[in-house]
Amino acid sequence: MLAILDYKAGNQTSVRRALEHLAIPCEITADAERLKNAWGIIFPGVGAAGQAMTALTESGLDDTLRQAVAVGQPLLGICLGCQILLTHSQENQTHTLDILPGLCRCFEDGLRQEDGSPAPVPHMGWNRLHVQAPCRLLEGVEPDAEFYFVHSYYVEPASDLVIATTRYGRGFCSLYGRDGLWAAQFHMEKSGRPGLTMLQNFYRYCQEVHHAQ
Amino acid sequence: MLSKRVIPCLDVRNGRLTKGVKFQGNVDIGDPVASARRYYEEGADEIVFYDITASAEARGIFLDVVERVAAEIFIPFSVGGGIASVEDMRAVLLAGAEKVSINSAAVKDPALVGEGAAAFGSQAIVVGMDVLAVPVSETIPSGYEIVIHGGRKRTGLDAIAWARRCEALGAGELCVNSIDADGTKDGYELRLTRAVVNAVSIPVIASGGAGHPRHMFEAVDVSAHGGGASAALIASIVHYGEYTIRQCKEYMAEHGAQVRLTW
Questions:
Q1: B5-254 has which CATH code?
Q2: B185 burial type by CB count under 10 A (0-12 exposed, 13-18 middle, 19+ buried)
Q3: Which of A13, A118, A167 is closest, CB to CB, to B96?
Q4: Residue B28's pLDDT is what?
Q5: Which of B2, B167, B204, B217 to mutate against chain A (most A CBs within 10 Å)?
Q6: Which residue of B has its CA nearest to A166?
Q7: Looking at the complex, does the CB of residue B173 fall below 8 Å from at least one CB of chain A?
Q8: Mean pLDDT throughout A193-197?
Q9: Each residue of A118-137: pLDDT tens digit?
Q10: Percent helix / strand / coil, chain B, rounded to 5
Q11: pLDDT at B26 exceeding the cut of 60
Q12: Distance CA B223, CA A70 (A)
């Protein structure tokens, strides 16, 4: 069973629909005990960093997440979840979870894409990954697969955590982490088959960890 | 770099497609969910559902369609038609759509654009604009006027000024439909598309007139001859099985457009 963290920040339902389509058992929950017992946690989110952190700290779910990582429970952050796993976000100048070292920055004004056309913010639409380091989540994903992004801020994690980058006016990190703790800026639940493959890969990893215990 | 998007549009009435969609191989289907699934599998980057139902009763049937679509396709989709309040927006977003598209309702109550953006974020709010070419005048300096009710009612609003206003109000995207080109299959109204693209910095979807993949390339072409749009909305070109979405995208790629070809 995977737990989808419920902290009133958006896209839990679309993540649940994608997992159900893959026949992966899951539930949306804010219950610390249920989260603790899950084989893995998906930490989604859309919206603003400040509000999200307030919701997490007021409910105590920030500590639940820290403990999960501390005991090696698999965790996958998506979009806002990917951003607030780091130390600090320029969005609302928010001190974020600090589970992994890094910052979240705003895209600069006036950026241009490779064809010379403007790169307005938010970065919204389909874009590619340029893989920098091997990652289990990307097994079976074609090198030219594209993913669906919607965001105005980008992450800058410690460089040894970067798995893939994407170009939109500038290069930025779109997938980072280490075994068992991954974070993706894009919405794999809305990226067609390649995104579903990544969710399936995450579940396989969770199964392996669970059966090894 | 972002890929240019190809977006098929499905018109739904009482839970069924208004015109049967005919895929290559002559499968004729009136079920919007089955058609959405086919387009998803064929490489659509997004799908638009337009509810042309009039009654409140049929609205429930439409929301049921939205929920069934959300359970089967895993790309973004948007919903338009019959959305006149923040509550209407909430209902379709909760049912699983990523975006709502408002058209006449935005003209009647422009504050709705900002209210929707405040409640759900700009990325969820698309303003649809139906545009008619008219003689240049003091009130319509661009020569393009906004019309509503399917083009039957003129508003006196200049399309370029309206596009800028929608952006300022918080729209995340504009879908610009040329009433003159719509249904002609002679190509998009590129001059209009380009004028709106140049006037705003949010993404613009070109709509109306696609009859050949060449037209779709022209709509998104960033050169001076092209429309420069972020996406091309299409309907009959794929509904009647003349082209598949892959054929359209391959044509666009061969001519230099960045499109998503792996799915």
A1: 3.20.20.70
A2: middle
A3: A13
A4: 55
A5: B2
A6: B1
A7: yes
A8: 98
A9: 898 889 999 999 999 999 99
A10: 35, 25, 40
A11: no
A12: 53
| Per-residue model confidence (pLDDT) at position A39 | 98
pLDDT above 80: residue B34: yes
A18 in reach of chain B (CB within 8 A)? yes
Asked whether the beta carbons of residue A115 and residue B262 sit closer than 8 angstroms, the reply is no
Q: How many CA atoms lie within 13 A of A184 on its CB side?
A: 25
A117 vs B: CB within 8 A: yes
**Of A102, A68, A106, which Cα lies nearest the Cα of A177?**
A102
Any B CB within 8 A of A195 CB: yes
pTM of the model as a whole: 0.95
Q: Do A146 and B173 touch (CB under 8 A)?
A: no
Query: Interior CA angle at B96 toward B91 and B98, to 5°?
Result: 95
| Catalytic residue numbers of B, as ranges | 11, 130
Structural domains of chain A, ranges and CATH numbers in brackets: 2-212 (3.40.50.880)
Per domain, the residue ranges of chain B are 5-254
Q: For the residues B33-53, what does the mean pLDDT come to?
A: 94
CB contact under 8 A, B96 and A189: no
